[in-house]
Structures are given as C-alpha cells and as structure tokens.
Specification:
The protein has 120 residues and is of the alpha/beta class. It has a single domain, classed as 3-Layer(aba) Sandwich (Trna Endonuclease, Chain: A, domain 1), CATH 3.40.1350. 32% of the residues lie in helices and 34% in strands. Strand 5 and strand 6 form a beta hairpin. The chain is globular and about 35 Å long.
Amino acid sequence: MTEWDAEELLVMLLERRGWMVVRQVGLGQKHVDIVARLDETWAIEVKLDRWKRAAHQAFLNSRYVHRSYVALPRNPRRKLDMEFLRELGVGVIEFDEDGFDCVLPALRRSVDYLGRECHV
C-alpha cells in the first residue's frame, strides 16, 4: 500500500460515515492530506509509518482547524509515543479496510480557517 492508497482508503471510510472531505488542501507552501468536516473540521496527515514527521505536520496544521490528526494503517506492533502526541495536542486515527478508530482524541481548538476556506 502506498500513502496515496492509504489516503484514498481513509477518504472512502470518512465519506461512508457522512464526512465531507477535501484532499490535498494547499496551506502556504505545504498541503494538508485531508480536510474533513462533520460537526467540526479536522486536518488529517496520512502516513504509512513515519508518524513523527506526520505529528510535526499535524501540529502545524492545528492552528487552522478544530482538531488535527495523524492517520496510520492499523499495526499492532507499532509503538507510538502517545504522551508526546498528547502534549502536541495531535490525535491519532488508525484504519484498515474495515473502518477507522480515533485511538487518541486531538485537542479541540476554536479555529476553523480551513473548514471555511475549503467550504467543507
């Protein structure tokens, strides 16, 4: 599975649950993999394994949305530093073909810049 395949799978899973989704949203010289909105707006960085890099990106994205997440394919052998992620205010989503779970909720912020800009 490539990161693009993982992103497509997560988009499909989110849309199945009623989320409005926009992919590859420009944010200055960078982009957010997924911006999703249901009752609030989430920025989601999808990675196959480099969760620390994704955490850094998600932390930067957190200035523009209600919640910011790192999304990773399920892997019971993967060790994440949940305390580090919690300190950043970044949440974790794990997913596979059967669905997704928010295994660490992100800190909720009051901003929704990307939700308004993307019209999601």
